[in-house]
Amino acid sequence: MKYPDFVGQYRPKGTIVKRVGDTYYAYYATSKRVPEKKYPVQVIKGLAGKIDQYGFHPLTRAVVDTERVRVRECGFTNFLLKFEDEYISNRKGGSVKDRRDLYRSMIVYLSPESYLCDDSGQTIYSPEEMTKRFHIGIPNQITAISKLCEFDLRELEPLKRISNVRMGERVFASELTQQQKELLDRIGVSEEDVR
Fold first, then answer.
1. Tell me: the pLDDT tens digits for 44-53?
2. Fewer Cβ close by (within 10 Å): the C or N end of the chain?
3. Residue 26 pairs with which residues in a beta bridge?
4. pLDDT average, residue stretch 59-65
5. 118 contacts 72 by C-beta, under 8 angstroms
6. CA geometry: angle at 19 spanning 3 and 44, to 5°?
Protein backbone atom coordinates (compact mmCIF):
# COMPACT_ATOMS: atom_id res chain seq x y z
CA MET A 1 0.00 0.00 0.00
CA LYS A 2 1.28 3.46 -0.93
CA TYR A 3 1.18 6.08 1.84
CA PRO A 4 1.59 9.86 1.53
CA ASP A 5 5.18 11.14 1.94
CA PHE A 6 4.54 12.58 5.39
CA VAL A 7 3.78 9.10 6.76
CA GLY A 8 7.27 7.86 5.93
CA GLN A 9 8.83 11.11 7.06
CA TYR A 10 7.27 11.06 10.55
CA ARG A 11 6.98 7.30 11.22
CA PRO A 12 8.97 6.42 14.35
CA LYS A 13 11.60 3.70 14.12
CA GLY A 14 10.34 0.25 15.11
CA THR A 15 6.76 0.92 14.04
CA ILE A 16 4.47 -0.08 11.22
CA VAL A 17 1.67 2.07 9.82
CA LYS A 18 -1.93 1.09 9.23
CA ARG A 19 -4.58 3.29 7.69
CA VAL A 20 -8.07 3.36 9.20
CA GLY A 21 -10.38 5.63 7.22
CA ASP A 22 -8.38 8.83 6.69
CA THR A 23 -6.22 8.34 9.79
CA TYR A 24 -2.76 6.78 9.85
CA TYR A 25 -1.85 4.89 13.03
CA ALA A 26 1.67 3.82 13.99
CA TYR A 27 2.01 0.56 15.92
CA TYR A 28 5.05 -0.82 17.73
CA ALA A 29 6.01 -4.00 15.93
CA THR A 30 8.72 -6.65 15.83
CA SER A 31 9.13 -9.87 13.93
CA LYS A 32 9.36 -13.34 15.40
CA ARG A 33 10.66 -16.51 13.93
CA VAL A 34 8.10 -19.34 13.85
CA PRO A 35 9.61 -22.79 13.24
CA GLU A 36 7.02 -24.04 10.72
CA LYS A 37 7.13 -20.82 8.62
CA LYS A 38 9.74 -19.82 6.05
CA TYR A 39 9.57 -16.13 6.97
CA PRO A 40 9.38 -14.28 10.29
CA VAL A 41 5.89 -13.36 11.53
CA GLN A 42 5.13 -9.76 12.44
CA VAL A 43 4.08 -9.17 16.06
CA ILE A 44 2.26 -5.93 16.92
CA LYS A 45 3.03 -4.80 20.46
CA GLY A 46 0.63 -1.85 20.75
CA LEU A 47 -0.43 1.53 19.44
CA ALA A 48 2.31 4.17 19.32
CA GLY A 49 0.23 7.11 18.07
CA LYS A 50 -1.15 8.87 14.99
CA ILE A 51 0.60 10.40 12.01
CA ASP A 52 -0.71 13.33 10.01
CA GLN A 53 0.76 16.07 7.81
CA TYR A 54 1.86 17.94 10.98
CA GLY A 55 3.90 15.08 12.41
CA PHE A 56 3.74 12.13 14.74
CA HIS A 57 1.42 12.43 17.76
CA PRO A 58 2.27 9.88 20.43
CA LEU A 59 -0.46 8.06 22.29
CA THR A 60 -1.05 9.55 25.70
CA ARG A 61 -2.80 7.73 28.47
CA ALA A 62 -5.19 9.72 30.58
CA VAL A 63 -5.47 8.74 34.19
CA VAL A 64 -8.99 9.39 35.37
CA ASP A 65 -9.93 9.38 39.03
CA THR A 66 -13.23 7.52 39.08
CA GLU A 67 -13.41 7.64 42.88
CA ARG A 68 -14.36 11.33 42.82
CA VAL A 69 -16.91 12.23 40.15
CA ARG A 70 -18.59 15.63 40.37
CA VAL A 71 -21.41 16.72 38.09
CA ARG A 72 -22.03 20.47 38.08
CA GLU A 73 -24.71 22.37 36.22
CA CYS A 74 -23.35 25.15 34.02
CA GLY A 75 -26.01 25.99 31.38
CA PHE A 76 -28.61 27.70 33.54
CA THR A 77 -25.94 29.34 35.73
CA ASN A 78 -23.96 30.82 32.84
CA PHE A 79 -27.10 32.07 31.13
CA LEU A 80 -28.20 33.94 34.28
CA LEU A 81 -24.67 35.27 34.91
CA LYS A 82 -25.04 37.24 31.66
CA PHE A 83 -27.46 39.49 33.61
CA GLU A 84 -25.40 39.81 36.80
CA ASP A 85 -24.07 43.33 36.13
CA GLU A 86 -27.54 44.59 35.31
CA TYR A 87 -28.92 43.04 38.53
CA ILE A 88 -26.13 44.63 40.59
CA SER A 89 -26.69 48.07 39.07
CA ASN A 90 -30.49 47.88 39.54
CA ARG A 91 -30.36 46.76 43.18
CA LYS A 92 -29.84 49.40 45.84
CA GLY A 93 -28.15 49.00 49.22
CA GLY A 94 -25.13 47.01 50.30
CA SER A 95 -21.78 46.81 48.59
CA VAL A 96 -21.24 45.57 45.04
CA LYS A 97 -19.82 42.33 46.52
CA ASP A 98 -22.95 41.88 48.68
CA ARG A 99 -25.22 42.37 45.66
CA ARG A 100 -23.09 39.96 43.61
CA ASP A 101 -23.20 37.37 46.41
CA LEU A 102 -26.99 37.81 46.66
CA TYR A 103 -27.47 37.31 42.91
CA ARG A 104 -25.24 34.24 42.85
CA SER A 105 -26.99 32.87 45.95
CA MET A 106 -30.28 33.21 44.07
CA ILE A 107 -28.81 31.27 41.14
CA VAL A 108 -27.75 28.49 43.53
CA TYR A 109 -31.21 28.59 45.14
CA LEU A 110 -32.75 28.09 41.68
CA SER A 111 -30.15 25.51 40.61
CA PRO A 112 -28.63 23.71 43.63
CA GLU A 113 -26.18 21.72 41.44
CA SER A 114 -24.60 24.92 40.06
CA TYR A 115 -20.81 25.05 39.78
CA LEU A 116 -21.00 28.24 41.87
CA CYS A 117 -21.25 25.95 44.92
CA ASP A 118 -17.58 24.96 44.37
CA ASP A 119 -16.23 28.54 44.28
CA SER A 120 -14.40 29.01 47.59
CA GLY A 121 -14.08 32.77 47.00
CA GLN A 122 -17.83 33.09 46.75
CA THR A 123 -20.32 33.55 49.60
CA ILE A 124 -23.50 31.60 48.95
CA TYR A 125 -26.33 32.44 51.34
CA SER A 126 -29.15 30.11 52.33
CA PRO A 127 -32.71 31.37 51.66
CA GLU A 128 -33.07 32.24 55.36
CA GLU A 129 -29.80 34.24 55.34
CA MET A 130 -30.84 36.09 52.17
CA THR A 131 -34.18 37.04 53.71
CA LYS A 132 -32.69 38.08 57.05
CA ARG A 133 -29.55 39.85 55.78
CA PHE A 134 -30.97 41.58 52.69
CA HIS A 135 -34.64 41.86 53.72
CA ILE A 136 -35.82 40.30 50.47
CA GLY A 137 -38.62 37.98 49.50
CA ILE A 138 -37.40 35.03 47.48
CA PRO A 139 -40.45 35.11 45.12
CA ASN A 140 -39.79 38.83 44.48
CA GLN A 141 -36.17 38.07 43.55
CA ILE A 142 -37.26 35.28 41.19
CA THR A 143 -39.64 37.73 39.51
CA ALA A 144 -36.84 40.33 39.24
CA ILE A 145 -34.49 37.77 37.64
CA SER A 146 -37.23 36.69 35.19
CA LYS A 147 -37.74 40.31 34.16
CA LEU A 148 -34.00 40.82 33.68
CA CYS A 149 -33.55 37.83 31.39
CA GLU A 150 -37.00 38.32 29.80
CA PHE A 151 -37.96 34.65 30.22
CA ASP A 152 -40.07 32.70 32.64
CA LEU A 153 -37.47 30.69 34.58
CA ARG A 154 -39.60 27.52 34.17
CA GLU A 155 -38.95 27.78 30.41
CA LEU A 156 -35.21 27.62 31.13
CA GLU A 157 -35.39 24.32 33.06
CA PRO A 158 -33.66 22.30 30.26
CA LEU A 159 -30.57 24.49 30.75
CA LYS A 160 -30.18 22.96 34.22
CA ARG A 161 -29.25 19.67 32.57
CA ILE A 162 -26.29 21.17 30.69
CA SER A 163 -23.46 20.02 32.92
CA ASN A 164 -19.75 19.49 33.23
CA VAL A 165 -18.54 16.21 34.69
CA ARG A 166 -15.27 16.40 36.62
CA MET A 167 -13.23 13.28 37.37
CA GLY A 168 -10.08 14.27 39.19
CA GLU A 169 -8.52 16.96 37.01
CA ARG A 170 -10.38 15.93 33.82
CA VAL A 171 -13.54 17.77 32.78
CA PHE A 172 -16.09 16.38 30.32
CA ALA A 173 -19.03 18.32 28.85
CA SER A 174 -22.46 16.74 28.59
CA GLU A 175 -23.92 16.41 25.11
CA LEU A 176 -26.81 18.72 24.29
CA THR A 177 -30.23 17.29 23.57
CA GLN A 178 -32.32 18.50 20.65
CA GLN A 179 -34.62 20.27 23.15
CA GLN A 180 -31.65 22.13 24.66
CA LYS A 181 -30.35 23.14 21.21
CA GLU A 182 -33.78 24.48 20.24
CA LEU A 183 -34.03 26.40 23.53
CA LEU A 184 -30.60 27.98 23.00
CA ASP A 185 -31.70 29.08 19.52
CA ARG A 186 -34.93 30.53 20.93
CA ILE A 187 -33.20 32.52 23.68
CA GLY A 188 -30.44 33.67 21.33
CA VAL A 189 -27.31 32.20 22.93
CA SER A 190 -24.69 29.77 21.69
CA GLU A 191 -23.49 26.60 23.35
CA GLU A 192 -20.19 28.35 24.16
CA ASP A 193 -22.13 31.01 26.09
CA VAL A 194 -23.50 28.44 28.53
CA ARG A 195 -20.49 26.10 28.90
1. 888 889 998 8
2. N
3. 17, 49
4. 69
5. yes
6. 110
pLDDT in tens, 96-135: 999 999 999 999 999 999 999 988 888 999 999 999 988 8
Q: What is the pTM of this model?
A: 0.67
- Is-contact 73 114, C-beta < 8 A? yes
Rounded to 5°, angle at Cα 64 from 61 and 69 = 160
What does the angle CA 169 – CA 170 – CA 172 come to, to the nearest 5 degrees? Answer: 145
Is the pLDDT assigned to residue 1 strictly greater than 70? no
170-173, strands of its sheet edge to edge = 69-73, 163-167, 170-173
CA dist., res. 11 & res. 16, Å (int): 8
